[in-house]
Amino acid sequence: MATDKDVTLHSLFEGTLERFGTRPAVRAGDRELTYRDIALAANRLAHVLIGHGVEPGSPVALMMSNRLEWVVADQAIIRAGAAKVPVNSMLSATEVAYILHDSGAAIALADDSMVDVAREAGVATVLALGPDWDAALAAAPSDQPPDVHVRGSDIGLILYTGGTTGRQKGVVHRQSGLAVNLLAHVLEIGLLDDERLLLSSPLPHSAGFLLQAGLLKGALVFVEPRFDVDVVLRRIDRDRTTFFFAVPTMIYRLLDAAADRDLDLSSLRTILYGAAPITAERLEQGLRRFGPVFMQLYGQSEAPNFLTRLTREDHDPDRPRRLLSCGRAATLVTIQVLDDQGQPVPAGESGEICARAPYVMDRYHGLPDATARTLAGDWLHTGDIGFLDGDGYVYLLDRKNDMIISGGMNVYTSEVEQVISACTGVARVAVAGVPHPDWGEAVVAFVVPGDDFDQGLLEQACQTELAAYKRPKAYRLVEHLPVTSVGKIDKKLLKASWRGW
Length: 501
Hints:
By secondary structure, the protein is of the alpha/beta class. It is built from 16 helices and 25 strands.
């Protein structure tokens, strides 16, 4: 049981930003905040939150795209001891409304793109960027840290992930686990005191943890609204960034764009990537252009980012087999491959990848049965099928829960199938991920049409109900869906039937 003496996310940042004073902390476009700027603004905003009834563990929705104010809002939530509920602006209004209702967030910090959906979802208090935001901060009673008592057992984060059956699940993390997880990020990446991080992925996801790790070390963090290959290359060349977080799709685009340019990329120490392996051919190209900077992570919302790590040294083109792995267990993690009875299997044999770590989630919000299944036997059951080799490297073979990773974003097929199944004229549907040269995997819907089928209406429903990255890239009409010997839809056969783009 966590106690008030535990290290918490709140205590890790207590006085940390102030210690770095006027050192530049975050740049976005032509705007910059120093560590002192963030601390003072975050203190004021924390007082505003407390004035609206926020207490340690209270859910607060953070509904902003990548921008400086996201950083201030994130730190304010930490200083108030609240539970952050990050909401990605890429989600549909339906998905956002579900997250807000399910989490119970009574207050939201939102930018222009998210204000209306927050209000329509019935959030009691929406603090929007602009005049209201400025006035609220100006009227705050103090710019000093609020006096709050945060315990390790308090909830510090409710992170929503796609559901394999039904709606998204709220992954609950407590303050003590978040603190250990943040220290694990610093340790696993090997962040130095002069880091210059470049983040162009959505901050509500993995990039938000990397932002916090950088600030803990006094880094300068460049926050971009989206991935733009020219901007990234310019940041490395001119601004001497040392760290970039990517998915393989981004790396491939960087390599193609940098091939014929006269750029100084020597400042780069780390390209941290996840979601899929890098090909041996591309790795050789990357090593020639960037040097030995590649590091792969494997994790999930239930244990953010670092369950395993494939080190820089592991990225050796002379060992192509190892490049197919996602590395060995991170420092604070135990990995085991278990069979359907929860028993470990020998090296080389496949089973479910399971993990133990001090930063595994506490539970799924309001889903005790799903929690019990996922944490059965005191293991985190990842839902991924794979094996361990004799040296402890983890190899992923398949995803037990039919998750697709497209451009680094997780897409759960059941969510897409539910939207399509509800459309008039759809007799049956199965959604699968097929190989794509750019996205890694692309979402494809295999549809058995019935009476009154209208593909235009189907596509319109997906446009309305699903985030852009979850929408099928293609719809294939079929007479029937293949099934296995036990009557389940055979998605392997569906994938095998795909004839390319």
